[in-house]
């Protein structure tokens, strides 16, 4: 037997090992038994259990991911193989979808500048300004940089009215490095800036996908600080208006020049993903592939637009969706979106949860450890649990700019819903429209007369979202999320 250790020798945080040695008096035992007892008491000591708890806490802390956003321009919902294309070959993006989650109810905006201000700020364009995004808007890049991230933007900026207004350019809006054009290629020319300095022009539209990918890879290899997590926002010019592919891809697809561009995108995206592999960054990088708005697929635009290279009518594919860019029907707003983060985002999953670019800022806040602004209305919500597979549901609703709102499977459009001119359907009646997207994804069966109570409910929600009070008062904003 062993004599008892005096109670006063125990403390809340430790065991007095000297006392153990002097107080454990062998009675009718041998040395091995005493040593075994000493070992058992040591293992049960508070020091040991506290250490184990600390180790468990360290293991449970989430890693701050690197973030890579690949943002294409005017790409249709049905352009990729994994979204149903039977024409375009997109093996790298199809593979990315198998490695991550493919979202089927993902929304951006209906045109270029508004889609970018929404993505950067988490705020609908009615608040964030679109092409005219004010200098005092707060971007996710500004916020994430304060937590130790290094930030870079390559490609089309398009929120400084396509002008070199320094306080509204990428360096002033949170990006440590920038290369790209401040606007679009509407006249077949792009004017580059590197940081705040002019960096030449180009009329070679077929070189842009490779150029932007090269600049992104160069930043990852040569300019990035390997001791810091990073955000790289790659915003392509293609497939906006004057499209073209490089000689390596021109004429190789079954989809004309547009198909050539889609397949070159696939290849160049694969090259960028291979760079992550080469640098050992894949496992710790959240990759998001999506587009700014639907495809320019309307006769009204292509017939009046001049200056295109032969065959470059950019007839993108909206798949089962109605209309395209500039429209408030699903073809204008709903985009492909693929998200990968190995061992974090479930692989091989398809999700119909409502998710949107406005959700990026609050989600990045959760993942990177910064606070979203509280002095203005943030339209986005934190979608971390959706991305990580911890819940199946996403947003409750999504607002269509000056047009209507979706809540659940129901979508309402007001009679004077905003369409850009080229997207106007001449035979559309200016009446309330109500669609059940679960049954009618192509928005062909207007149910407004059958469900007037649902029309009234969604109209009220739309008006709350548009209210100036909701945009300025955080407490009011929380009531309409």
From TrEMBL:
Main EC class the enzyme belongs to: hydrolase
Keywords: Hydrolase
Example GO molecular function: arylsulfatase activity
Pfam families given in the database record: Sulfatase (PF00884)
Domain annotation Sulfatase N-terminal: ranges: 65-369
InterPro entries per the UniProt record, alphabetical: Alkaline_phosphatase_core_sf, Sulfatase, Sulfatase_N
EC number: 3.1.6.1
Domain of life: Bacteria
Similarity comment text for this entry: Belongs to the sulfatase family.
PANTHER family named in the record: ARYLSULFATASE FAMILY MEMBER, ENDO-4-O-SULFATASE
The protein's name in its UniProt record: Arylsulfatase
Origin organism lineage: Bacteria, Pseudomonadati, Planctomycetota, Planctomycetia, Pirellulales
Gene symbol of the encoding locus: atsA_54
